[in-house]
Amino acid sequence: MAEEDTNSVVLISNDGFRFVVRKSAAMASPAIKSMLDKRSNFAEARENKIVFQNMSAVILEKICEYFYYNEKYRDAKDVPDMEIPPELALELLMVADFLHT
Amino acid sequence: MNRTRGKIRPPRRGLATDPVDFDEYWDTLAQSLREIHAKNASRLSFEELYRNAYKLVLKKHGEKLYANVKQLVVEHLKVVAVRDVRPLVPSAIVTGGAAFGTASSVEKRIGGDKFLDRLKVVWEDHQLCMGMMKDVLMYMDRVFCADHKIPSIYVTCMGLFRDHILRNPQYNIGKALNTVILDQIKMEREGDIINHATIRSCVYMLEALYENEDENENEKIYLTSFEGEFLAASGEFYKQEGVRLLRECDAATYLRKTDKRLSEEYSRSHDTLSTLSEPKIRAVVERELITNNIKEVMDMDTGLRFMLDNDRFEDLKLVYKLVARVDPEKQALKNMMCKRLVELGREINKNANPSTALAVAPAAVPAENGDSAKNSGAAAANEDKAANNLTVIAIRWVDEVIALKDKYEKVWTRSFDEDKGIQASMTGAFREFINLFQRSPEYMSLFIDDNLRKGLKGKSEAEVDAVLDKAITLFRYINDKDVFERYYKKHLSRRLLMNRSVSQDAEKQMIGKLKMEVGVAFTNKLEGMFKDMNISDEMTSEFKKMLQNKEGSDEGKKIDLTVNVLTSTFWPMTSMGADGMQTCSFPKELEALKDSFTTYYLGRHSGRKLSWQANMGNADLKTSFKGVKKELNVSTYAMVVLLAFNNIPAGESISFEDLTTITSIPQAELIRTLQSLAVVPKTRILRKNPATKDVRPTDTFAINELFTSKFTRIKVGMVSANRAETEKERKDTSEKVDETRAHQIEAAVVRIMKQRKVLSHAELVSEVISQLKGRFNPDVAMIKKRIESLMEREYLARIDGERHTYKYLA
Question: Quick one: fold of A8-99?
Fold first, then answer.
């Protein structure tokens, strides 16, 4: 079931939650960006859908939140801090490393 | 995730603690990578591959992964080399290349094209696959390669392509590639059509590959192994082309072909090869076709000379463009052009040279003068005629020089981009031949004289200005400006005294221009001459008014006197022939008038000396022949002679002796005057006995009652107008010039020494030259002589012990 809207992409967590994210925001991650690269034509690019086997919905949600946060404040100064629950911090760090964000 | 606050809890799942089996993960990964090579990526999940690579790296298997990937790519490339590329390598290259040339060009082209095409496809596949692998293995690149400072997998795999495809030890693909590309380019240069795009892609490939993994910009494969061969082959090609063109084409065609080649190579390096080579290949073409051959081309029959002579502006422009490419100084062009210019100048000089010109002159002299040439009078007339011819020649000379200058100026603006250097050398050339011609200052002044006397009639102010400007530009070229000044003064004085000048404005303009060129010192005497004329005008009218007011005197009523009082230092007295007192006895009514003016003048300006120069004036006489009224315009001398006949009964004659006594005109002048009155047919007012062509002291003269003329006003041509000098006059002039120069040199020496007190000989000489070069080029020997003379007169002295140093004696 391919997502028709080419401006957004579907991110799916390992427990089956679907997050529809604007592509431009998700592209903040080079990993996601190359996954969606039309030239290499991987399954993800074809279906416009990425399944992350190593992320739970809680984490992925926070990731998506960050994507928008990043896009919103990309060029701004005096950026307000983003809320990160301490219990998620370490896991988020690892995922950030994975996504190269 | 750059912000963390509060307490950090361990992750819920211990990712880091999971044991990972390398082989298991690698097998999946390798399988997928092979799928990528087989272009089946769409079945694969990027995320899965990425995650696998991520895990392997995380578990410290990075090094093994890296090596394995390399191995996998090498195996693939080996297969590609054998399966895809080898069959299309032109066979001759593999076996050594001996038979390569025999294939027909069509076969060669198609074969080459196919080979390049395949190589291009292989390269693009490789690039694409490596791009995908790089993406998938991004985590490895980022963590493992960066940490261990080894080249990223992409770079490494590009190196693998270089080693296993291009430099394949068995098949020599790289060499084949070079040969094929060069071959194709050669075909295109010879007029075939080739596939630019394929070559371009292959060149892109060469440009994207480097000698080693550092990817140093200067070590692109393109630069290291292709470009050199390309340039060498091009050099060879253009060398032959140059020889062929020189043999087959005329100069213009050669230039056009060269220009075309240059633009072809330019577009070739943009469309087909790499822009990196653009300057290099340009240098090759420039060297082979321009630098090595341009001189020969310009020397051709149809070369530079032909173009200059025939106004081939376009061709000349091309010459300039091409020469400018290889030599910013354009030395070759300058030299050749100046050579031609000087050649033409010498030609003009030769035509204007009196000795050659006089060969033409006798034909122009009427036969009646020819038989009595031995007689002094006729000889003088002859000389006058010759001199008049010279005037024509002088004007022609200037005209020709100006025409030449116009022509080259045009070439310069239209073809040479108004190049400053070329202008300078053109100026040099003009200077050279103009100064080579000794009469140039005289001729130039004559030209200006001619124009100011009659040439300017009917011309607009702008045209006048143009003519004068041209004259000035030529003037600039003259080294001996003082000689010019001398002639100009002489000519100007004649114009002023005889009212020959067409326009005062034009005269003033000319002087203004001269002033701008060489400064006030040069022109203040000329301006003084004008001032004298103006003051004289005022004074004359004032004098006349005074005479009218004076009751009981009728002097001035019958005679209208105009006096020009000349300041003797401003006017070239000597060259006007007024060395000493040139006077004569005036008839008494004139004498009275003269005395009254003298009184008047000295009354106004006491302490001045007024000397009357009869030889420079002229007079209008009213008379009648057989009842027909005539007005005669004659020189002052002629007037005195004619008035002498007033005092004797009509029909009587006066002997030469008596005339001498009555008029006390110097004998030579009297002869000349009588000649104009009694010999020249049109103005034979006096009857001479015997009626020979020349005037002797034994002759007698009477009024020619039978004189007729269809004009009422008759001009007796006595004082000849400005004309070129005869040889003798020239010699006098140059002697006088030398004399003046001697004074100027002495003045300069004294000026310098007064300021410097002590100076060495060499320094002094160079100072003098630099001070005087605006007026003339002093001769070193002359300077030396003047210094010696100054030492004799004790202005200077040698310093004891130092032989070549002088000191100034106050």
Answer: Potassium Channel Kv1.1; Chain A (3.30.710)
